Amino acid sequence: MRPFVQVLSQDEVYQVHMTSLEILEKIGVEVPDEDSIRYFEQAGAIVDWEKKIVRIPSQLINEALAKCSPSVTLYNSDGTRAMVVGGNNVYFGTVGFATNVLDWRTGVVRDATIADYEEMLKLCDVLDFPQFILPPAQPNDVPVELSDRYQAKVALLTTKKPLIPQSYGAKETRDVIQMAAEVVGGIDRLRQKPNIAMLVTCTSPLVVRQDASETIIETAKLGIPLFIESGPMSGATSPVTLSGTVALANAEILCHIVLAKIVNPTVPVIYASWARIFDMRFGNVSLGCPELALMRVATSQMAKYYNLPCGGGGTLTDANSADIQLGYEKMVTAVVPALGRTNMILGMGIIGQENTISCECLMVDSEIARFSNRIINGITVDEDRLGYEVIEEVGPRGTTYISNPHTKKYYKDELLMPRLTDRSVPAEWFKNGAKNATTIAKELVEKYLSKYQKPELPNNIEEKLDAIIKGEK
Amino acid sequence: MSILNEIARELLNGNAGEVEKLVIKALADAIEPGTILNEGLVSGMDVVGRQFKDGDLFIPEVISSAEAMKKGLTVLKPKLMEQNTKQLGKILIGTVQGDMHDIGKNLVSIMFEGAGFFLKDIGVDNSPEKFVKEVEEFQPDIVGLSALLSTTMPAMQRTIEALIEAGYRKTVKIIVGGAPVTADFAEKIGADGYAGDAVAAVDLAKSLL
């Protein structure tokens, strides 16, 4: 058995679903974009043009869901299969648009630059985890209005791993998709083997933002996958109750999916959520909280109820330094969503909610992802592994397990090999310099960065991408 | 327990209805409105502020207390005006250009109103020109600028510059706040103060007037 966790019973899933339907049918969503309102109206939604409120009957939701696929396959930019997003598969990735960096060389927190962003992506490319990239930083040394395209450009040039880019509007969406198409060999190839899924975020409560509308419409028209996420904050932009937050988030994600499927019935969609809380002591969002873990499992259950691939925030912390708080928050918000079989878990490499990127914390996160991966792979039970023969061979008071061929045969599969984790006896640990996890992480950052190799890309690709950014193409 | 202590206690517990009743009774008992304000309402709010700072009281309770304060003040205000008791001051508050975030600003607004300030909240995404126009019309003592994105913080500087250009800088105190904002940044852009949370914002505003 592969272990998994659920937080909602079937009945409870259904109750959440019914609440979401009622929200969409009776309360509706605000849709500032008139093109989107027209799409909704033509499909049968009830529209108040004056207030820009769209009410969506259940039938439209059922129709949209019937057109969805239970999995979306994303590829590396070289066309190799990277992730089958769906079912019980779990992948870890980065997130954030952070504007700060915790410099791993100096320990200083400062503005994040393109160079910091690129270095982080190099480390991501070399490591096993993360398996996909959502731009971790919004570098401060590029013009703000072009940042989405610079983030995409540097990511496409630095790593071949799948990307979840953002875009600020219709033209920007077309530019980013065109950039990805240049890298993989054309729009048809991109459609067939997409290495991107365009990011769409919802504004809670119940708003389909202008740029979200534009991104959905342009992406759906081109048939490129959409990664649609809603992240209300319990107590601030949704009810403080976790079930209320899940019902609201669910409604918001569903209405964005409905729009996407009206524009193009075949566009691949991934259902994602950042449902989190508003902390009532600090007056700030909290991401490293146990409630995030619970709600991530719940929103993933809702996605699975609809037979949709799912994702969302996880592996997150509110800590502003690489310390013990980071450790426990990141671990619980990684392993619990993993057990909930959230297909794409976004959060590696970022700390202080989503304010600061850190290479050493990315190393810690990759170890956390490996631990989580080991947990969800569970315990394999079969005749040979039950080991009756080897138990008989070693016998009572026997000491030869360590040298037994059975051990050599299975140990690498059964036991996670520590990479960052230190397990020395105390005397050895002191002798080797009493290094804590952060120190070891920094050593590993240096080691892995030195192994980075630029991916093979088409000739003159950088010039082509620059031309798109400058509007020359 | 004296009626003033009762007012403070009911305010601490966030019972707006009780506070209103007790303030009316205190006035009927011929207690001075200024005394009811300071020794009943304000003294209750001071305890709220302290307990929030200590982590013993949280935002939802602070909000209920601020609303109880507001209800008490609604009864007291006409009496205070009659006696020409100095009004606490006028505050104009808004989120700067390009920024749609308002949860923090809304909390601060509730606290300012609860403290007895006359408040105008101009919402989100306000250009420097909009701030100038509103300052001209509303004539506040304090202008509060809020931003949640580090990318919209420069708009705070532009807003201050616009107020300088329009000749209003000397007539207002400018305070700034929001998650990425710091005291250093406030100083750099020439603001008069920075506060890290809603309770501190009220203290700051009072100290500037």
What topology, given as strand order, has the largest sheet of chain B? 2-1-3-4-5
Could you describe the largest sheet of chain B, including whether it forms a barrel?
5 strands, parallel
How would you sum up the major sheet of chain A? 6 strands, parallel
Shape of chain A: globular
Proportion of residues in extended strands of chain A: 5-15%
Helix content of chain A: 40-55%
Sequence stretches where pLDDT stays below 50 over 5 or more residues of chain A: none
By DSSP, the count of extended strands of chain B is 5
Task: Give me the oligomer status.
Answer: heterodimer
Strand content of chain B: 5-15%
Number of helices of chain A: 18
- What percentage of residues of chain B falls in helices of 4 or more residues? 55-70%
> Count the strands of chain A?
18
Order of helices and strands of chain B: HHHHEHEHEHEHEH
Alpha-carbon distance between the termini of chain A? 52 Å
Describe the 3D structure.
The complex is a heterodimer of chains A (473) and B (209). With 473 residues, chain A is an alpha/beta fold. Chain A has a six-stranded parallel beta sheet. In chain A, α6 runs parallel beside α8. Chain A is globular, with a radius of gyration of 23 Å. With 209 residues, chain B is an alpha/beta fold. Helix content of chain B is 58%, strand content 11%. Chain B contains nine helices and five strands; from the N terminus they run ααααβαβαβαβαβα. In chain B, α1 packs parallel to α3, α3 packs antiparallel against α4 and α5 crosses α9. Chain B is globular. At the A-B interface, loops of A face α5 of B.
